[in-house]
Amino acid sequence: MWYEYTNGYARYKQEINSQANYFLSSNPGWAIYNPEWAEVTPPIGTLYNYAIIYTKGSCVLHMLRYTLGDSLFFQVLKSYATDEQLMYKNAFTSDLVSKVNEVTGSDYSWFFDEWVYGPNFPYYHNTFLITETTPGWNVKFKAIQVQTNAGFFKMPIELQIDFSDGSDTLLTFMNDVNNQSFDFEFDKEPVDVQFDPNDNIVIKWASTNPVSVELSDGVPGEFNLYQNYPNPFNPATTISYNIPVRTNVILKVYDVMGAEVKTLVNKEQPAGTYNVNFDATDLTSGVYFYKLHARSYVKTMKMILLR
Question: What is the phi/psi pair of residue 184, to 5°?
C-alpha cells in the first residue's frame, strides 16, 4: 500500500502480481495459520516460510480488499489500527476476523477459512456458451473449480463481456457453489468472455473455454478434450473432457517417444464433464501427450512438465 500511496494503484498492483507469481511457483502447500503452532512451534522454515507468510499474506489482503470494496476495506483497517483493546498488544487472526465482521455488519469468516486457515488456491476451468435468442443474445457462464488439494473457494467474480461492435461490459456476482451457472441477456452480439479481467483473484490458475453446444439439462452436446491446466505444471495438472453420451472412455498419457506413461481412465462413463488429476511426481521434466478415445472421437494434446 506504500507503493500505491507514493506511486499510484498501478505500481501497487504490479507488486501484488509479483508476490502472487512468486507464491504460485513456490507454494509449499500448507495454510498461513495453523492453531497447533500456538502449542508446538514448527521449524523456522515453516513458521516464517516466505511464500506462505509474506507473499500469500499480501495477496490475501489484496483479495480481502477486492471482496469488501475499497470503502469498507479501509474502514476495517482504520478501526483495527485504532482499537484501544488491540493497540500495543498481541493481536490474533481471530481479532481481525471479528473486526471485519463488526465493521461490515456481515459474516466474512468464510473468506478467512478459505485463504488463511485453509491451504492452496482455486483452479478454475470455466466454460461459456453464447447463443442467439429471440430477440437478442444469451451468455451462459459456468464457474468450475477442479482443484483436488483444497476445498471450494467462494469468491466474487468479475466477467468482461466483449461485443461485436467493440464495446464491453463488466459484470460482478458471487460464486458461492461449485459448477454454478449464470445466464445473462444482451441486445447485441457478445463475441468473447473474459474471466477476472483485472486479475483481482490473484492467487489462482484459470482457463475459460467456449463450448459449442450444451443441452437444456446441462449435458454436453459434443465430445471435447480441453487443454490441461495449469500448463506447464509441476507436479500435478488437471485434464478435462466432455462426453455427450454414456460410452467407454480411455484417457492415456504418453512420452515424446510414444511410450505409454499412465492410463488415467479406462471405463464406461455417463454423459457429462469430467476433470481428471494427473500427478507426474515420478516423471522427469519434458513434453508429454494425453489422448482421449471415446467412441469414434480421438484427440491428442500436448502438456509440459517443468521442474
Answer: -135, 135
DSSP letter string over 128-174? EEEEE-SSSEEEEEEE-B--SSS----EEEEEEEEETTS-EEEEEEE
Pairing mode, strands 123-132 and 137-143: antiparallel
- Using DSSP's 3-state secondary structure scheme, residue 183 falls into strand
What mean pLDDT, rounded, does the chain reach? 92
Calculate the alpha carbon distances from 41 to 51, 89, 91, 116, 134 in Å.
Answer: 18, 21, 18, 18, 64
Q: Which residue has the cell 506447464?
A: 232
Question: Would you state the cell numbers that stand for residue 281, as one nine-digit string?
Answer: 511426481
Encoded amino acid at 213, one letter:
V
The pLDDT confidence band at residue 49, using thresholds 50, 70 and 90, is very high
Domains of the chain: total: 3
Spatial strand order of the sheet with 168-175 comes to: 168-175, 155-163, 190-195
Q: Is the pLDDT score of 6 beyond 90?
A: yes
Closest CA to 198 of 190, 189, 206: 206
Name which of 79, 27, 75 is nearest 50 in CA terms. Answer: 27
Residues 292 and 250 sit within 8 Å (Cβ to Cβ) = yes
- Phi, psi torsion values for 188, nearest 5 degrees: -140, 165
Looking at the fold, whether 17 and 50 belong to one and the same domain comes out as: yes
Are the beta carbons of 285 and 292 closer than 8 angstroms? no
Per DSSP, the three-state class of 289 is strand
Q: Could you report the per-residue pLDDT of 148-178, keeping only the tens digit for each?
A: 889 999 999 999 999 999 999 999 999 999 9
pLDDT digits (tens, 9 = 90+) for 188-234: 999 999 999 999 999 998 888 777 655 556 677 788 898 888 888 88
Domain span at 72: 2-115
Q: Residue 26 carries which side chain, given as an amino acid letter? A: S
Whether residue 13 is found in the same domain as residue 102: yes
